[in-house]
């Protein structure tokens, strides 16, 4: 059985002559430390074997209540029982420990098929009990019987060593390998023990198993895993250290593919790479000028090691034709894409079985970071207009996906051609026109923004009639008339629901402003003349009153409009008009309400807490910023492509006009309120 096995045999021989003999290997384990047996209330020291603390209930008498017949392993309750007395009685009560399971008792037979006593000791992490059991079995039946029992598997084909690895007990693994070094060669469901340890991240246990395998072990089956994987497939998911360790054990593991054709490199690039700098740094081109040796120090991941071991695996596809670069793009791993393109730049233009490059799949799977990285890397210019088997470029796919951020990044790159046609003869603008949904929708939805942006930068339709593009040609078919009727029903229901939602806000604003104006004004009232506001005549009071009145008028008008837009008997065009006007009025009333709140707080707090009043006035506009955040974000997103395609002097008037019109539309109440307040102040001064 080898030197290690002989050492256990020598231990058994020495133990027969000296019951207190402790082998050297046990001295390095946690076994040697005194342990408390919760069942017997004893503190046992292996160096003396005899309990140092007697049972407080029964003196030295051991009280383990088990039946005289064989017991099932689940009845042993090994948890908390660790002393030699418990182990001795459990050993006596499990006479089938080294023999076949009892056939007469069906329940007991099935239980022994499921778990043996040694399995339960290993699963519960009871190292001391396991040591006592294998020692007693070895003293009675010899080392061969111990090895036979340890190699028995339960119904899941697991030995006690499998369970010790699963719980991550390295001392128990070391003990079992000391008893039987060949135990590490028993696979479980086509999964070697080294693979099991590596897959669970137990680096020290995996090293123990590798050291115990010896020269006689099958070099490939020792690292095999399920589905044709090997230990390196699992190691790359646990970082650089584990990967380096497995690569040092066996050369050639990086070239082995699983049953899906995936190599360890496919696995490595599919997970996040640990970096010592923020991951967004890898999006920019300056990192390309940094020496590769320094770039390796910035990433603590297995990808560099795998490419150093066998860089040709970057060009090996899986069974679906996906290269590691495609997998990294699918999972949006920008760091992995950067490493692959830095080490193996020629894999950039390779395609899968669908004719798609890594940039195509990045767009399909919404890998925004990878798309932005590729658009900023000059070497990727050659694949910007590559067409897949369907003739689609990455711009075609971005338009179909209706992802504004990816679309704008592609459009900012001037290497992207706007008017290439796919196999159906469609340009990107044709696809964008087909994406626009019929009916009444938000004007800044992505489908409409993509179409308008393409139009502004000069994209063209294919040679096709306009009615063919939109599908609006009138054939007089009854099916089309039925479809139009169904669309009208959907539009009516849509407007009714939207009107109800918006009406809640408009009524609430009207109620608040009415209460603030007539219930109790800020500052209270004067005694003489009675009912006169105390702060009347100040500019901020006039502004507060104007803001409250304007908010009430706008919200009330919006409520009336929403009543019309929510009534189904009104024609759809009229309802849409009322809804759009009401939406504008409600939005403006929110601005007025914000101004009124800020001025009201300022009037009350300014005399006693001027700083607090200023702070609240500064915080209040956050509501207006939040309301306009989405529209401003989309405005800035589309301004990038317009600037890149049209130039600064064409972009500047467009951007200035768009921002100015949006500000006037959203913030015109500021002009009205403060202009009216200033006018009222001048009148007070003239008459005062």
From TrEMBL:
Residues 494-604 form the PGG domain. Pfam families: Ank, Ank_2, Ank_5, PGG. SMART domains: ANK. One of its GO terms (cellular component) is membrane. The keyword Membrane applies. Keywords: ANK repeat, Membrane, Repeat, Transmembrane, Transmembrane helix. It is found in: Membrane. It is a multi-pass membrane protein. Its main location: membrane. PROSITE patterns: ANK_REP_REGION (PS50297), ANK_REPEAT (PS50088). The chain crosses the membrane at residues 539-567, 579-602, 608-626. This is PGG domain-containing protein.
């Amino acid at each position: 059985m080898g030197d290690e096995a002989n050492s256990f045999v020598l231990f058994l021989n020495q133990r027969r002559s000296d019951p207190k003999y402790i082998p050297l290997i046990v001295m390095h384990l946690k076994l040697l430390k005194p342990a408390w047996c919760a069942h017997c209330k004893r503190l046992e020291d292996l160096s003396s074997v005899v309990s140092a603390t007697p049972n407080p209930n029964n003196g030295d008498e051991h009280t383990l209540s088990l039946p005289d017949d064989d017991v099932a392993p689940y009845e042993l309750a090994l948890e908390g029982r660790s002393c030699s007395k418990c182990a001795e009685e459990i050993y006596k009560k499990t006479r089938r420990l080294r023999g076949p399971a009892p056939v007469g008792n069906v329940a007991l037979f099935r239980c022994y098929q499921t778990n043996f006593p040694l399995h339960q000791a290993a699963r519960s992490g009871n190292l001391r009990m396991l040591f006592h059991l294998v020692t007693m079995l070895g003293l009675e039946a010899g080392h061969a019987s111990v090895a036979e029992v340890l190699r028995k598997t339960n119904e899941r084909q697991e030995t006690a060593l499998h369970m010790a690895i699963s719980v991550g007990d390295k001392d128990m693994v070391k003990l079992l390998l000391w008893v039987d070094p060949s135990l590490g060669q028993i696979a479980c469901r086509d999964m070697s023990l080294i693979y099991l340890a590596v897959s669970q991240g137990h680096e020290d246990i995996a090293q123990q198993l590798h050291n115990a395998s010896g020269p006689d072990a099958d070099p490939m089956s020792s690292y095999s895993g399920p589905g044709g994987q090997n230990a390196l497939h699992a190691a790359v998911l646990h970082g650089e250290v584990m990967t380096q360790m497995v690569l040092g054990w066996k050369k050639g593991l990086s070239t082995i593919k699983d049953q899906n054709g995936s190599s360890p490199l496919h696995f490595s690039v599919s997970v996040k790479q640990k970096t010592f700098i923020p991951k967004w740094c890898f999006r920019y081109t300056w990192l390309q000028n940094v020496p590769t040796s320094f770039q390796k120090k910035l990433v603590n991941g297995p990808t560099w090691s795998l490419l150093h071991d066998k860089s040709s695996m970057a060009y090996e596809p899986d069974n679906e034709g996906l290269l590691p670069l495609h997998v990294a793009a699918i999972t949006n791993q920008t760091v992995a894409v950067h490493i692959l393109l830095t080490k193996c730049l020629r894999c950039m233009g390779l395609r899968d079985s669908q004719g798609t490059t890594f940039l195509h799949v990045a767009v399909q799977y919404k890998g925004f970071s990878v798309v932005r990285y590729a658009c900023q890397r000059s070497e990727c210019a050659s694949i910007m207009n590559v067409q897949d088997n369907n003739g689609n470029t990455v711009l075609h796919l971005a338009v179909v996906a209706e992802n504004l951020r990816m679309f704008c990044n592609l459009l900012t790159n001037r290497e992207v051609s706007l008017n290439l046609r796919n196999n159906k003869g469609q340009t990107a603008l044709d696809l964008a026109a087909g994406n626009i949904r019929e009916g009444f929708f938000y004007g800044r939805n992505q489908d409409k923004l993509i179409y308008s942006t393409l139009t502004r930068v000069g994209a063209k339709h294919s040679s096709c009639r306009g009615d063919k593009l939109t599908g609006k040609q009138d054939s007089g078919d009854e099916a089309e008339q039925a479809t139009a009727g169904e669309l009208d029903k959907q539009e009516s229901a849509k407007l009714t629901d939207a009107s109800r939602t918006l009406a809640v806000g408009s009524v609430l604003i009207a109620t608040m402003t009415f209460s603030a104006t007539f219930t109790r004004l800020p500052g209270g009232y004067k005694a003489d003349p009675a009912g006169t506001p105390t702060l009347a005549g100040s500019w901020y009071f006039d502004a507060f009153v104007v803001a409250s009145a304007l908010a009430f008028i706008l919200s009330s008008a919006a409520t009336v409009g929403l009543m019309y837009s929510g009534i189904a008997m009104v024609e759809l065009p009229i309802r849409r008009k009322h809804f759009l006007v009401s939406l504008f009025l409600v939005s403006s009333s929110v601005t007025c309400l914000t101004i009124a709140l800020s001025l009201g707080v300022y009037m009350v707090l300014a005399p006693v807490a001027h700083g607090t009043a200023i702070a609240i006035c500064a915080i209040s506009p956050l509501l207006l910023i939040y309301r306009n955040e989405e529209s401003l974000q989309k405005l800035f997103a589309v301004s990038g492509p317009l600037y890149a395609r049209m130039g600064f002097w064409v972009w500047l008037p467009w951007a200035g006009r768009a921002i100015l019109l949006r500000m006037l539309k959203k913030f015109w109440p500021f002009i009205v309120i403060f202009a009216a307040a200033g006018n009222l102040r001048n009148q007070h001064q003239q008459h005062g």
